[in-house]
């Protein structure tokens, strides 16, 4: 359990985000956001409650909501489209999630553990999903016939009449230069640091991968120079 | 005017409608409850019908047309974008006459230009990884219209995803990283023409994914409004060599593929080969298309009276299909970003109960179309598991552009790539008068050719690597 000072710091970080004033403009407590919220139908979650907690600066309950509630939001942004005050509860939830990660909250670590595979794919390839992830073994609840033609995945992908899509471990072929540019973005914006705080093992795997790709790119650049 | 109409301005002479909660507009109250039980201070205006129409003209014109937010309450961020360019802070990637733009109206009546040619395909990771018939159908249409690959459109390997799926799902990432990714991809679109012998700005980005579309619009807004954010990402883009004359490149419009389909719908209909008049189409529009930065979604007064976004419905109508309404049209699909990966009970329960059940039982839909990656995946893949809860109903799921391609004679397997769908697309194909078995047998023969390296392409593969075809 955090001290009040720590909870206050968490709230200050939420309020300090430059989007905060865009997303929170007041609240009538009308509840139209909750009425149209898909997550409110399944979880102990209410976008109206999130807005009210922030609007009333209730630091203890804001901290409490960050344990579980903020992770229930489906990010559809129906709440934002409906709010007569132009609040964006979904946008506020994103700020709160970012702050939960920044503070290394255990709730964030617990919630994101099953998301590791997607993060590994995204950070290392720039794609968030790949054909080899969409297989019956990984999604048994999608049924035995998630494809209508049997066959080797590589051949089925080769049968897509677009060059960039004939891949198996990425959604499309991303050039090495593009990937290295993206790694630079991750490094310069603190994304890798956040990842390290959340899951050190995953970070180590990703760091090794990135180093290897960067070396490949350096080698490629040298080859180009030699050719010239 | 019928003197017995209970319309505004009519006096109630029959006593009908009096009483608590049943008073209709224009009725004189007799019990001190006021109109419709709102209280005695709500009284009938005693206006004639003509006077009432005149008095409410503003409401119909402005509120019904959703222009109420014009003026002080809603800012058109594009105006600030032009000011920034004038001040020398940014370069705006313009939509030019050569892009053959078509004008559409947005939610508040604002104008948006949709480029129809010389397009840079900003692919979607979910579509390419999971629903490849989505981008192939789109490229197929462009070829059908005689577009020249490498000149009229470009698909290349120098592109990342928007990374917003991960961001919305996990919170890993931030506005700076999203902005840098956006600007990197769109800078590449801006300069991509040079490698093919054209000038900068030749190719205009066409965004395939609904979440990329929503995310990029949101990020563009923040970039235009925040000098601090611009300063931060400028350092990153500078390091990447992704500035033009030391400036950030921001697109005049963020354009979604379904907007291209919308403005091209009549030309698409000219290619039609199969009658669609007996096909019942229900439509699900992605939340991130019209609820995220909602002021930038297309509305057309000739489609659903302009009361809902025209996307999806307009192309189904142009093809002569029956567009069927259903009560949960406004609901999201249940994708949830994180949920489809790690909270699947939410995703499948929501999509089965709020989308598939309603599309089947209420709308009797032959197909449920959508315009986004996550929605199609969610609604297509989560039907089988419903059987475990006695929910034994299924509806074919595909993108608007896939349905249109089928109607225009595209191969269900080679082009529309329905083999990757889990929902019963074969039922729809058969109902349209196309033999599923014949098409499948033909495709299985083609796979043998593919094994031998004999692959049919929609464009010369060299184009993907920056080469000239």
Topology summary:
The complex is a heterodimer of chains A (228) and B (469).
Chain A: H1 4-16, H2 20-23, H3 32-35, H4 47-55, H5 59-65, H6 78-82, H7 89-102, H8 106-112, H9 116-125, H10 153-158, H11 176-188, H12 191-198, H13 200-227
Chain B: H1 49-55, H2 57-63, H3 77-86, E1 90-93, E2 102-105, E3 111-114, E4 119-122, H4 125-130, H5 133-144, E5 153-154, H6 164-170, H7 175-191, E6 204-207, H8 210-225, H9 227-239, E7 248-251, H10 257-263, H11 265-270, E8 280-284, H12 287-290, H13 313-318, E9 322-323, H14 339-342, H15 344-362, E10 367-370, H16 373-381, E11 397-399, H17 400-407, H18 425-431, H19 436-451
Parallel strand pairs in B: 1-7, 4-5, 4-6, 8-9, 8-10, 10-11
Antiparallel strand pairs in B: 2-3
Helix pairs in contact in B: 5-17, 7-8, 7-9
Which whole number gives the mean pLDDT of chain B?
89
| Whole-angstrom Rg of chain B | 25 Å
CATH top level of the largest domain in chain B is Mainly Alpha
Number of domains of chain A: 2
Count all strands of chain A and give the number. 0
Number of helices of chain A: 13
Largest interface: A-B, 81 and 103 residues
User: How helical, in percent, are the residues of chain B?
Assistant: 25-40%
Major sheet summary line of chain A: none
